[in-house]
Amino acid sequence: MNFCKRKLTRSLLLMLFLSVTAQGVFGQKPSNTISTDTQRLFQQARECLQTGNRWLQSQQQPDGSWRSEAYTSLEQGLGSTALVLATYSEQPRDDLQERRIQQGLVFLTSHLNQQGILNSPEGDVNYPLYATSLLLKSLAESGDMRGEALSGLISRGLLRYQHVPAQGWPANDPGRGGWGPGIEISETAVRMHPANVSVTLHVVTALKQTRKFSLEVRTAVREFLWQCQLQESEHPLAGGFQFAAISDHPLNKAGWQPDKKGELIAIPYFSPTCDGIVLMLECDLPIDDSRVEKALSVLPELPHARLAELPLNPEAKYTPLDAIFFYEQAAAARVWRELQLRRATDRFLRKRRIQSLKKLVKSQHADGHWSNPLPWMLEDDPVIATAFAMQAIQRWLPDSKREP
């Protein structure tokens, strides 16, 4: 009898050990219990979305566009309209909002050139490839592709400007495989407007949604990704991403430094690493790929954009609302949402989610808009800042299918 009891006790202890091991060592599933304070914060954030939406609706022009009041170079409204429509594509919509979206789509599609690119008299200053990719994404999300011909035209236009030699780009282009913001193909353009992680992500997302993302294109994008991800294993920020493929380019907003060989390397920073993580996932890398895991693990250590002071000062202290604050919130929230879609989580992003929502709720103006006192990423334009803020909130908020 005692032998049977000891055997039963050992069995129970073994089961308990295996249970604890499975939960502790291999990762406990995130609890679905949300505190009252967090629930209240989520409700405040939803109310901010509603007031932000009303403010954006009030800014739409009779021709369907949203135009910048802060920048004369953006007065035509192509980039800002594309950004607002991309923001709306992620929000729940009623009939009124659907009509406003359709008005915006009509406005944008009327400005497509023969190559399927949104191009304005101001040229690359309006970020034509960025705006065009957002338009294609919005068309796909709306379910209104205006026929396969329009979808194909825009997709071919975007593919035309991938930085690969077959499209006329220089063979020595450091950004080979990616996309930059503009449509000028030359050695000068490569240096002035190099391929970057952000535009590449938005183009790839649009191409995937319209099933125009071929294996050949994906392979080239992956090569671009490895060029932008810091591979030096002994570097404390290994796994992080730079924004532009040219290491010492001013667009790499955390600066650069010499490596052990004396060659300049860009210092990875937070927002392009968020975009790089999502881009790796869009390129079909699994969530447990070592390159994805490295990027996620280094996120808490990465510096933020240091644009508040020139020349760059690594010792400077910056306020929470500096540099590219709203874009950064939206980029981090997108990583969180992509992890949620794959039933994964991240402790750092879980904590940042609450911090970000609190800042966004607190920084909204009474009439519903957001704005940044600093001009970087054009966030001193309320239309642009409000669009990014609403993207961030929508992505941080719980998905009813996965979280209460």
The main pleated sheet reads as: 2 strands, antiparallel
Percent of sequence in beta strands: under 5%
What's the order of the H and E elements?
HHHHHHHHHEEHHHHH
Number of strands: 2
**Global geometry:** globular
**Rg result:** 23 Å
Structural class: mainly alpha
Q: Compute the separation of the termini in Å.
A: 49 Å
> Unreliable runs, pLDDT <50, ≥5 residues?
1-9, 12-30, 308-312
Could you report the average pLDDT, rounded to the nearest whole number?
Answer: 85
Percentage of residues assigned to helices: 40-55%
Strand order of the largest sheet: 1-2
Number of helix segments? 14
Report on this model:
Helix 4 (95-109) packs across helix 5. With 404 residues, the protein is mainly α. The chain starts with a helix and ends in an 8-residue tail after the last helix. 51% of the residues lie in helices and 1% in strands. A hairpin with a 5-residue loop joins strand 1 and strand 2. The chain has helices at residues 2-24, 36-59, 78-88, 95-109, 128-142, 148-160, 187-192, 197-209, 215-228, 270-282, 290-298, 325-341, 347-363, 382-396, and strands spanning 256-258, 264-266. The longest helix has 24 residues, at 36-59. It is globular. Strands 1-2 form a two-stranded antiparallel sheet. This is Squalene cyclase C-terminal domain-containing protein. Residues 1-22 form the signal peptide. It comes from Gimesia chilikensis.
